[in-house]
């Protein structure tokens, strides 16, 4: 059965500092911060700002070995990934893999939302980093 994503759960946006990102998305664009999450193991400081059914996920580096440092060095910030909400991340990623998409890691991990997530390499997705997020009932 084809796995159809339910919606775009969030857009991940890389920023040099959370302060810089919040000055734009909170103060300038009027979104409200729902929560802040530090993920030291990934070198990330994250802010979630709901925008209707979708979130804006601001990703700022935390410490020396941030997962997004290379992206910031290369592009200076901007849209980093698109997160698709699915009912079954294993089935959705298996389908993507069967169509030649290269999955990152050995399986789903628990993301900043506390739910299973997995990424595909942007080299295999026509340049856009894709994240899947498994949400019960999606
Ligand atoms: Co994300």
Describe what this molecule looks like in 3D:
It is globular and about 45 Å long. The model has no long low-confidence stretch (mean pLDDT 94). The protein has a single domain, classed as Roll (2,3-Dihydroxybiphenyl 1,2-Dioxygenase, domain 1), CATH 3.10.180.10. Strands 2-3-4-1-5-8-7-6 form an eight-stranded mixed sheet. 20% of the residues lie in helices and 36% in strands. With 138 residues, the protein is an alpha+beta fold. It is built from three helices and eight strands, in the order βαβββαβαβββ. It binds cobalt (II) ion. The site of cobalt (II) ion has 6 residues, from β1 and β5.
Task: Outline the secondary-structure elements.
Layout: E1 7-14, H1 18-28, E2 35-39, E3 44-51, E4 54-61, H2 69-75, E5 78-86, H3 89-98, E6 109-110, E7 116-120, E8 130-134
Parallel strand pairs: 1-4, 5-8
Antiparallel strand pairs: 1-5, 2-3, 3-4, 6-7, 7-8
What's the short story on this structure?
This protein has 138 residues and is of the alpha+beta class.
* Total DSSP helices: 3
Question: What's the structural domain tally?
Answer: 1
Pattern of helices and strands:
EHEEEHEHEEE
CATH architecture: Roll
The assembly state of the depicted protein chains is single chain
Distance, first to last CA: 15 Å
Task: Look up the CATH topology.
Answer: 2,3-Dihydroxybiphenyl 1,2-Dioxygenase, domain 1
Structural class: alpha+beta
Bound molecules: cobalt (II) ion
Helix content: 10-25%
The pLDDT mean sits at: 94
User: What spatial order of strands do you see in the largest sheet?
Assistant: 2-3-4-1-5-8-7-6
Strand percentage lies at 35-45%
Q: Segments where pLDDT lies below 50 for 5+ residues? A: none
CATH class: Alpha Beta
Shape: globular
The largest sheet, given as strand count, sense and whether it forms a barrel, is: 8 strands, mixed
CATH superfamily descriptor: 2,3-Dihydroxybiphenyl 1,2-Dioxygenase, domain 1
- Please compute the radius of gyration using only Cα atoms: 15 Å
| DSSP, total strands | 8
